[in-house]
Hints:
Shape: globular
Low-confidence stretches: none
Distance between the termini: 34 Å
Mean pLDDT: 97
Bound molecules: ligand NA7
Structural class: alpha/beta
Helix content: 25-40%
Radius of gyration: 23 Å
Amino acid sequence: NEAGPVRRYDAIIVGAxxxxxxxxxxxxxxxxxxxxxxxxxxxxxxxxxxxxxxxxRCDSESYYYSYSFSRDLEDEWDWTxxxxxHGEIRRYLDHVADRFSLRRDIQLGTRVxxxxxxxxxxxxxxxxxxxxxxxxxxxxTAVGCLSSANVPAIPGLESFAGAWYHTGRWPHEGVxxxxxxxxxxxxxxxxxxxxxxxxxxxAHLTVFQRTANYSVPARNGPMDDAFKAWVRQNASxxxxxxxxxxxxxxxxxxxxxxxxxxxxxxxxxxxxxxxRGGLRFRASFRDIMLDAxxxxxxxxxxxxxxxSIVADPETAEALTPRDHLFATKRPxxxxxxxxxxxRPNVTLVDLKKAPIAAIVPEGVRIAxxxxxxxxxxxxxxxxxxxGPLLSLDIRGRDGLALRDVWADGPKSYLGxxxxxxxxxxxxxxxxxxxxxxxxxxxxxxxxxxxxxxxSHLRERGLDRVExxxxxxxxxxxxxxxxASATLLPMxxxxxxxxxxxxxxxxxxxxxxxxxxxxxxxxxxxxxxxYDGFALR
Length: 536
Ligand code: NA7
């Protein structure tokens, strides 16, 4: 039914998380476009709207997991913890939406079901599940990278007599675990955050682990007054440092090699990094992510820590990662994760010995054993990067479906544009360094670059920008080259490679050349009149 009125805007943005909010602010308030944000959820916040599972918090530290574009915003907002909890990030984003009067242009509860480029009209036609139609010259996807929940197709799930939840679709009213037997499937960043919190509340927690993981203590804590004062005094320098860093974090990567120091000195450096905690552990030496032998020293250090923390030798052995090196999969950080397995009410089940055969009304069945459960929590990750984009059913010129174009893996130019899809920008898409970066740093760069590009078009009376196939091929080769210069492609079960979703093409999707380097490339492309893009 196409009877509804068509609403026309200069730009449609899909998604009202960190990306969509800032992109709206820039396009509306700086470029002067009419903009509508369409958001499926009933509130803003994107990732942080959905991820409300127990223990959900950011692994980047609060004072730099935030926008840097407004000094006033920075000055007036007080973070309470070193690692912000999901609710605090939502409050921050709500504040941003109010402070910059963004809400009036955001339409909540609106799930986009299709977007097609009308070549004759030179407009994107965006349709929603409710049957609304929008037309816009520009379409910007701000749908996140980790927003398509991956619930594995385990036979019998529908027969389960208890309740089950995916962590990325957590009920707003919370889940009461008291007195319950809980099964947690998945030991990525999410499962590792959730396990200690669920274990403290549930009668019993059974963790079903497919791949043992490395994790370093987060060392979360309150932001005390002295630390807050230090952050305020150093705000500009910290932001500068984050922008200049390979991963958008304001910490230095050591310039020393693992092999520049004696084994005793190395051990002391790792001990200090373990005590300090956080994602910074991998910055202890410059070659941890570049040289497998160097990495092995860090991996071995963490394996020893696991064995020293976990009391039961068999459980410790099962928790010790063997099939990948530290940080070749996204490294989790935790609060008492390994210690949780010393609790009398926690059991580890090693799925490497035997996989889950089925879910039955009483619980999870593995070989001949059934683990009786009242609740199952799927911390099984996401159809990362491509999933959220493909679910929009995007069609470019000549009815070209993005799904078909990306059948063998995603290809784009700078992670921002796909040939055949004029005036479509994919924020934090595959080919962007975003998922390897402290996300707001990548998001601000994408949003500013896109806003500058649209200003450039407007100033010159141009109405169309489209990446050339040659540029996308070149960028695809650069993404491959950058990944193979690191150890990242070595982890065969990583979501960076699409390996967690059965049937997904195995292609290393993020740009691993570093955020600062990427920023430089994007600036050069713009300075050369948008090299690699056809402007009309
Ligand atoms: P991840 O990192 O993709 O972790 C998912 C976990 O679920 C991981 O341990 C998987 O094992 C496991 N998994 C997935 N499917 C299954 C099945 N079918 N059976 C058993 N276990 C399974 O997702 P997270 O939500 O933890 O983190 C995503 C990102 O969010 C994170 O990297 C940060 O960037 C923030 P596997 O390792 O594939 O063997």
